[in-house]
Amino acid sequence: SKLPLFEKMISEASDYSKFLENLIGTRGVKKYLLLFQNSNELRPTGGFVGSYGVITFKDGKLQDFFADDSYNLDGQIREQIIPPVQLQHITPTWGMRDANWFVDFPTSAAKISWFFKKEAGYEVDGVIAINPKIISQILNIVGSVEMPDYGVVLNGDNLITTIQDQVEYKGDRAQPKKIVMDLAPALLEKLYSAEPGKWMDIFNVLVSGLGRKDILMYFRDLGLESFSVDKNFSGAVKKTNSDFLMVAFTNVKGSKTDAMTDSSIKINTVIEKEGVGHTATITRKHNGGETDYGFYNKPNPAFIRVLTPEGSELLSITGNSQTAYKPLVNYDKSFKTDDDLFKFESSAYYDKENGVYIYKEAGKTEFGFWMVLKPGETGTVELKYSVPLKIQNGKYELLVQKQPGLEIKNFEFSVDKPADREIINSEPALNKIGDKYILNGALEEDTAIGVLFK
Fold this sequence. Notes:
By secondary structure, the chain is of the alpha+beta class. It is 25% helix and 36% strand. The chain has nine helices and 22 strands. The chain has helices spanning 3-24, 70-74, 105-120, 132-142, 159-170, 178-192, 196-211, 222-230, 339-346, and strands at residues 29-38, 48-58, 61-69, 126-130, 145-147, 152-154, 215-219, 243-251, 261-272, 275-286, 300-309, 313-318, 349-351, 356-361, 364-373, 378-387, 395-401, 408-416, 423-427, 431-433, 436-443, 447-453. Helix 4 (132-142) packs antiparallel against helix 7 (196-211). It is globular, with a radius of gyration of 23 Å.
């Protein structure tokens, strides 16, 4: 009776073994760009890329690894490229550090690779994005790293806050990210000297990180990229014939305040003969303002994008911030337009009355708007929209895709019982409260919801 399970496990182990073998390459050189995405400063694919690394394998063995400040690399680009509209009031030009602008990670990774080649002068075979929380978890396993030049001992509990403090206030102002560069070889040495028994714990951290999207992968090799998509660690916006929802936050000059901001999402669904209506309620509470760290006490300006099925229509919005941001410079002929960004932005419609950008991205209709919070404030945006989707065979399905790096401690889905139908089953199980059927809890991974009617 256990043979089918064993066969599945052996087959998957074989697939992953081939994947890893092709990733590091048994012959020749493979180079991968590592992005350290700080989720305390949210960006569409997980976080701001303040630091990066390049890891090199030769003939299947690790040859080299180094880390650097993304600003150092962006300083090498000669062309002045116009950035996304929502970033123009904080930077006059676009660079690799801001190139994870597209919610779809393969699209952002391809753009990041393009910038990297222009700035570094050579190509990489892929892009691997890592949430620094993974490093914290590994330090909890292998032990702390002493950094005597900085007077600190880094461990899993203080890693992110201590590095942010060094970068923002205490480090070398000419090279504020030097502590990151110095940490890389020290961490590698710690890994090399780890006891064999700890490697399984490290492996489990990496596997769970893939499941939570704390690690994302993009490859130029089509076989590797296909495997990445199939195993759900490509960060791609998912294609589906069912209903769809994804909420992505972008911190724009809000420092590290997402670490202090609680987010909740509620979606109420009404099933009708002509389609499906939604009320999405997004609430955020800024808990900063009185902490010991200045980077937690600043306002949190978030540009929010809500991805829905293609053809969805905005009905109303309340609670979003009306901003008057202006570009730092006037963009004349000395600035170049990026073709991919131009295509994305030129397809958009700006609803000035509601303060909403309506985009097309990754086969979805996307509503974009601002929510600006001061420390101590709580804000709520209520977005109403309709989806051109009819129930097929008495079943309604909704796929909720989680933004990498975003913690949603309170997610709630509710569906109103249609007047002419009864709900006979759901997966996962919904609680009946009055005429509503409700699912609530934390949103830790992509979640598919199915409701069966009669």
